[in-house]
WD40-like Beta Propeller Repeat (Salinimicrobium sediminis), 624 residues
Amino acid sequence: MNKNYLFILLLIFPAILFAQSSKQKKADRYYDNFAYTKAIEEYKDLLEDEYNTAYNQQQLANSYYKLRDPENAVTYYAMVVEQPEISPEVYYNYAQMLRGVREYEKSREWLKKYQEEARNPQGVEQLLKSDEIAVYDGLESFRVNPAPFNSQFSDFGSFENNGTIYFTSARGEADTKTKIYDWTGEPFLDIYKTTTASTNVTPVEGDVNTVRHEGPVTLSADGRTMYFTRNNYLKRDGKKDDEGVNHLKIYKASLENGEWTNIEELPFSNNEYSVGHPSLSADGKTLYFVSEAPGGMGGSDIYKVSVENGTFGTPQNLGAPINTPGNEVFPFIAENGNFYFSSDGHKGYGLLDVFVVTADAPGKVQNLGEPVNSNMDDFSFSYSGNDNSKGFVSSNREGGQGNDDIYQLNILAPLVLKGKVTDSINDKPIANASLRLLGEDGRQIAFLETDSLGNYQTVVARDKNLALEAKHIKYNTKNEQVSTANMDDRKEFVYDIELSPINDVEYLAEINKIYFDFDKSNIRPDAAQELDKLVNLMANEYPELVIEIGSHTDRRGSAEYNRRLAERRAQATRDYLVENGIAAERIVTYKGYGEEQPEVKCTNCNEQQHQLNRRSIFKVVKME
């Protein structure tokens, strides 16, 4: 090798190493200062140079984890978990991000590995349960559409009060001295407003917005008092804890002359941990919020505190089943008592999902399901309007305009399923028919009976495929599939059902058998009463009904004698029907069978058994 060339290499290598070392320090400084978007670019450059590969892969994976970017995070975590002596926390983070890309089984595998290797595994019991996601069993349906006031930046936390929509945004229009938040690379958050009748967006007036973070927000019913989240930043004095973290606090503001002023920090806020996400009950007596206070169940928990004449009680942790070792955030209490919140500690579709605990089932946490939830972060659920037919949810799901976006909810009332059950032959209503509705999982969701006019009615969820079973003792059971899809523009779904009568005259006419006296063929009075029922059936219920008659004897007497006796009985039965108005051609056959087809097979028959064998019976030949 040329000596001069070797000398040049010896000079270059230390310079390259020094440059990479400096770049590593820069990347780590960004990461330690929560400037994840800047740190990512530096770590990528270092990986391209194959410098500190294992370490930088993990730092890059963790940065994407902090930015809630599961698609990129799983790419790097997949490399990191193959490295030796990895912290179990990496397995947990990897599992969480796998949920964000809908790889649920793979996520369970890494959660199990975390559970096996972590000294004190937290937040996995719920997620490892083999049960299906406990999807909300309410009958209302949700339609999700992007709000018209979203920007290319983060927008979330919509709350409607008396026609004004308040929300949190990083669009950077609230302050001429807009600063960039290094964690996300976007401006700091501020509180904005618009109206239900306009898409014009303006910052809220007054002293609420600062150069730091503000939002989300909640208001009293009269719109005069605001509670909002803000960095620990009052009078331009930002305070950080020992680790350099500037926590969140809840503040209160009053509306005076159209501006929000009189900013006060709530007494249960703290410099050492975050308190935020306020949500006020409709009566203004309870404030719900989120905190990482020591002594909680893990992560962030939801608390409540009483409010009376501006005085706050002692905060109470809501405990299980709402709170978990994971993170519970963005509480919202509806006027009907239903409590909504987001969590990554309950089993869901991805990262944060929206859950509800209804007033009717306070111990049951239910996932609101799709389309409210997705594989990404879904949070900040709220109702708007007086009839609870509208609402909002925030999400960073695919297809949005910015990082987080606000989605408007159209909440459809259950569909009224109604109809009439009728006889397929005579079109007459069938009273007391029973109907069972079965869900897509085969479970019964409704059991109904028709009224005296054959009508039935119930409410069902939309977008479902339901199995319907209709039955009555006089009719053949009918099983059908009913779809409630594509009915957003309808309040009612009329579904009429026709049942075909069974081919059994005795059931249809509710008659007993026609019996005869020993060695006689005349129609007894009791037999006449039963035949009158058959006349009514054929004349009034089924005017096209065609039958055949078969008559029988007991075993006393010769076979030939009994055959002729049975024929006389068949003739007498037929003549009674004709004499009472039934056309002769509607009785196609009237035949005597003698003793060939006994009802009771016996050798030494007693009188009761003989009586049962002396009878006329009927068969349906044609119903229409």
